DNA-binding transcriptional regulator, LysR family
Amino acid sequence: MALRNLDDLAVFVHVVERQSFSAAARELHLAPKTVSKQIARLEQALGTTLFERNTRNLRITDEGRAIAERARVALGVLEEMQELATGGSQELSGTIRLTAPTPFGRKFVAPAIHDFCRLHPGVGFDLRLSDQVQDLYSGDLDMAIRMGELADSRLVARRVTDNRRILAASPAYLKAHGQPAQPEDLAQHHCLVFAYPGLLQNAWPLRKGRREKPTVVSGTLCSDSGDVLHAWCLAGLGISLRETWDIHEELRNGRLVRVLPQWEAKPSKISIVRARREPVPRRLTTFSDFLLERWRDAPWDAA
């Protein structure tokens, strides 16, 4: 049987991305039975089993996974054809699924989405916040905001601006423990360290002009959450190496104070990244351009 209904292919991709018939049905505003019928019809047309089903879970077959990758490309090509047919005049539509570090996403990505939606009300968003790196190839994510160097060369990246990191502590902590005079003094202080299984960021790459001084720190408090480290720093529990975008307001109102102000970490990058898939939907390029223009001058570093 020939594949005659492209809607079945789109439904199949939604089921793969959501890993659930019922979740895909809710997103598409369809009855679960309708989704099941469409998947069964697609399996019959393709002559293969796409999912292994039981009462507890749903597992995509190897054939289904290969077909899903090609289906995403095919649906993207169809979307591009529609845009060409309308001369790019059609309103942007569809959903952008993106991930970002939790604090940056809360403070800067969410407000940016709000403003973008006012310009393009036909675009929806699925924003997922996590302080751990999410794989853009194994799931349904379209793009990500990343900090630092990119370990995956398969990704397409657009550098936005520098990610400056400085040392900070609360006035109460410095009153109780004193202000270190040089990086070596940090060994005598409580330092708040970002960590999760397999990663401990306790080697702070400090520099003063061209002079570099990698400094190993220690402390009794570590976390995989930037928000938690921020809160501990405000509570006077130690010295933290924080991004300027994360603490610029607290520095201005005096709730935090710079430590070793002539020293800061070697800057990394803030980037917009996506998987290397073609074609790229116009909503993604338009949103990327919007973020680049909004953040390129690092507004959080403005005086």
User: Anything to note?
Assistant: The mean pLDDT is 87. The radius of gyration is 24 Å. DSSP finds nine helices and 16 strands in the chain.
